Amino acid sequence: MNILFYDAKKYDIDSFNKELKNFPDIKIDYLEADLTPQTAQLSGEYEAVCAFVNSQINSEVIRRLGEQGVKLLLMRCAGFNNVDLEEAKRRNITVLRVPGYSPEAVAEHALSLALAVNRRIHKGYIKVRENNFSLNGLMGYNFYGKTAGIIGTGKIGAAMCRICKGIGMNVVAYDVYQNPTLDFVKYMPLDDVLKTADLISLHCPLTEENYHMINTRTISMMKDNTVLVNTSRGALVNTEDLIKGIRSRKFHGVGLDVYEEETSNVFENRQDDILETSVTARLLSFPNVIVTSHQGYFTDEALTAGISLLRERRGLCPSTPQAAIASLDPALFTSLAVIKRLFRSNRSFVMFYFLVVTLLESDHAP
Ligand SMILES: NC(=O)c1ccc[n+]([C@@H]2O[C@H](COP(=O)([O-])OP(=O)(O)OC[C@H]3O[C@@H](n4cnc5c(N)ncnc54)[C@H](O)[C@@H]3O)[C@@H](O)[C@H]2O)c1
Question: How many domains does the chain have?
Fold first, then answer.
């Protein structure tokens, strides 16, 4: 199987090449360019393409991939709000993503943002480097004994609940489904979480229903001096409303690993660019805001987890494509028939299965 890998960074190439030695039937060509309507045209010789979280895989991109004969879209990320699944289905392109990786990687980053912005570590670091040892502007507050409000208690949210409990916080949460493993968490309606929490951390996927769930109305419900952290998806927060909230002194701090305008920034060095809009610049202008560039997932453990999963699963490889697909995440398989057609031999199927398990369950998965 030939895979065209878009938006390849050095760490992608290193980790995939390392693994590829074990899969002689799979060939990957790496492109620095992102997947766009224009670069989709380059996929003619490939059965599969691999893309990342910042690619806008809209109907135009999918149409062009389909015209080039691509059958499989491999997303090396967990979220899939950037993929037009309906169009993929219409074009018989199967979409796979990474449902599991290292939830603790993202949860620990969420807490890092919360602690750093609360205690103004970003300011203190710069001040001391400039021989300014004054403490003005660096006052924080203890999280110990305060209340963490976690929105979305799936894999990452649950890890965040455990971490917050570990630092002595009371934990309340909102989710459309309650997680039975979190017996120390008090579930509440969303509005009550917003009214109760000192630290609010978002860990739900972006859907049509929760687009801009943090807006002027919901911000007004929050306690004064709240710390808000978003490591989930930028569009959960209405950025203009957030900026108004920050200006009205609602927040003690805001930590963002994701934000609405991030797409053209993610993983790019844009230090010589003049930014097209002012949203990022305005966010960065506030002393109580920290922005990171979608790095929540970026730990050694998250990147190498795939290899150990692969080894664990070697003895468990199902004997048929149907069994393999059943063992993965069925929700996003748009066409079993298409996948089956891709395998000319059992051997290539087995190789493909290992690669997909690696991609799906462990690798770069923001
Ligand atoms: N910053 C990063 O590097 C990074 C990395 C991985 C994932 N993510 C983001 O984190 C999100 C969560 O990942 P996960 O692995 O914990 O997902 P998950 O599927 O395990 O959990 C998501 C939880 O959100 C809940 N949920 C769905 N809609 C909701 C709503 N409207 N309100 C409240 N809860 C809702 C679900 O019931 C589920 O419990 C992903 O969707 C992705 O956007 C970010």
Answer: 2
Asked whether 22 and 354 are in contact (CB, 8 A), the reply is yes
Return the DSSP state at 6.
Answer: -
> Do 166 and 262 have their domain in common?
yes
**Ligand 1 pocket member 233 (CB < 6 A):** yes
Domain boundary among 265, 291, 317: 291
Same domain, 179 and 284: yes
Distance of CA 346 to the CA centre of its chain: 33
Neighbours of 174 (CB within 10 A): 23
Is residue 244 domain-shared with residue 124, that is, in the same domain?
A: yes
Measured from the CB, is residue 174 less than 6 Å from ligand 1? yes
For residues 300 and 265, the answer to whether their CB atoms sit within 8 Å is no
255 lines ligand 1 (CB under 6 A): no
> Which residue in the list 104, 260, 262, 361 is annotated as catalytic?
262
Q: Which domain holds residue 6?
A: 2-101+300-358
Domain edge (last residue) among 261, 291, 321: 291
* Residue to mutate (ligand 1; options 204, 257, 291; most atoms within 8 A of CB): 204
pTM confidence score: 0.75
Residue 237 CA, ligand 1 centroid: distance in Å: 14
Let me know whether 191 and 257 are in one domain: yes
Residues 10 and 138 in one domain: no
- Token output for 322: 């149907």
**Full DSSP string of 103-154:** HHHHHHHHHHHHHHHHTTHHHHHHHHHTT----TT------TTSEEEEE--S
Measured in angstroms, how far is the CA atom of residue 207 from the centroid of ligand 1? 10
Per-residue pLDDT of the chain (366 residues; tens, 9 = 90+): 999 999 998 888 988 888 888 888 899 999 999 999 999 999 999 999 999 888 899 999 999 999 999 999 998 877 788 899 999 999 999 998 876 678 999 999 999 999 999 999 999 999 999 999 999 999 999 999 999 999 999 999 999 999 999 999 999 999 999 999 999 999 999 999 999 999 999 999 999 999 999 999 999 999 999 999 999 999 999 999 999 999 999 999 999 999 997 777 777 788 888 877 778 889 999 999 999 999 998 888 887 664 344 344 433 333 334 444 444 433 333 334 444 444 444 444 444 554 555 454 433 345
